[in-house]
TrEMBL record:
Protein name: alcohol dehydrogenase
Compartment(s) of residence: Cytoplasm
Subunit (UniProt): Homodimer.
Key words, A-Z: Cytoplasm, Metal-binding, NAD, Zinc
Organism in which the protein naturally occurs: Genlisea aurea
Gene Ontology BP annotations: formaldehyde catabolic process
Lineage: Eukaryota, Viridiplantae, Streptophyta, Embryophyta, Tracheophyta
Top-rank lineage group of the source organism: Eukaryota
Length: 171
């Protein structure tokens, strides 16, 4: 959802969210997601569904889960000639990224990054400015508050996909 919010702030007019839980679309709308795909609801591979609905592929894709199949789909769904896929999620150490060589010959770009290439010293001031100017609503990322003694609950919520960001109150 942070990638969707970043795309919204960058001016993207069409943001497609992908998740295996259709119920998450309503929450995703708050972060700029305009369309939603649940791969389980389609017979075609998700990258083909995206190509069909976008006339050949998206300009940019961002994969944040680290699921190797999702990473491959994120690359294969970008448009030939100018599409860029950015891989943010960290895959299992034994995962292998396999794709057809034509995906590279068709001038698609694949980038990897740790932490979204975020540079706190140079980026944080602009994030604070966007927050102060009400361009960025950071509160919508906070889904739960727990006390320090309940810190394990915050991890459980995260692992179940129910907690986006948890505030941990020091007692």
């Amino acid at each position: 959802l942070q990638a969707a919010e970043g795309a919204r702030l960058a001016g993207a007019s069409r943001i497609i969210g992908i998740d295996l839980h259709s119920g998450r679309f309503e929450k995703a709308k708050k972060f700029g997601v305009t369309e939603f795909i649940n791969p389980k609801e389609h017979t075609k591979p998700v990258e083909q569904v995206i190509k069909d609905m976008t006339n050949g592929g998206v300009d940019r894709s961002v994969e944040c889960t680290g699921n190797i199949n999702a990473m491959i789909s994120a690359f294969e769904c970008v448009h030939d000639g100018w599409g860029v896929a950015v891989l943010v999620g960290v895959p299992h150490k034994d995962a292998v990224f396999k794709t057809h060589p034509m995906n590279f010959l068709n001038e698609k770009t694949l980038k990897g990054t740790f932490f979204g290439n975020y540079k706190p010293r140079s980026h944080l001031p602009s994030v604070v400015e966007m927050y102060m100017n009400k361009q960025l609503d950071a509160e919508k990322f906070i889904t739960h508050e727990v006390t320090f003694s309940e810190i394990n609950k915050a991890f459980e919520l995260m692992l179940k996909g129910e907690g986006l960001r948890c505030i941990i109150k020091m007692e």
